[in-house]
Amino acid sequence: MDLAKTENIIDEYLEYQEKVGNRTELYREVAKSYKISSALYPGSHIDISPSLVIPKVVYVDNFKGTIKFFKNMNPIKSYLDEHKEYTQTCDISFIGNDYSEELGIEPVDLIISQYAGFVGQATKKYLKTGGILLCNDSHGDATLARFDDEFEFIGVIEGRNKIISSDLVDYFTMSLGKDIDLLKVKEKMKGPRYSLGAENYLFRKIR
After folding, report:
1. Domain count of the chain?
2. Is the pLDDT of residue 3 over 80?
3. pLDDT band at 1, cuts 50/70/90?
4. How far is 1 from 56, CA to CA, in rounded Å?
5. Angstrom distance (rounded) from CA 113 to CA 42
6. Is residue 134 part of a domain?
């Protein structure tokens, strides 16, 4: 691959990162706090930031633009090798399918869910017992995890990517004591408006 094309691939990632916000610090904080060495990122698009701080990451997306991006794996690996924050070899792989299909991968320490639907529900079988689900509630993924008895709600991540693991009782509560309609969440693919919310939520798989 010529140098110009290599630079274009990395520029595409950096431009995307600038558009959605740099999540590297988010992934760094989670990886450090929970000793993460492997992750699955369903619906990743071209956000390869987890591989800067996590040695082994499997990316899954069926979007044509993402599939095209990951076909250029050599320059991606070169960039990650140059910028990674760990001593291990960077192990990155990509699956160009719908994440709800069988992925055929080994269980991981972390599943990342960012604006890609019900990732936690569809892929939790690939999460080790004791592993972490990092998700937001844009499509209701955090809500479904909160009321899933396979998960334990263990924290939220607020501004400046600070993990808060205490005083969590007020999260996932509706105003005026209203009940949460999980069927509506699934139908609308949208998280409810809670009295207290967070940018990201953390769950531990307990069974």
Report:
1. 1
2. no
3. very low
4. 24
5. 7
6. yes
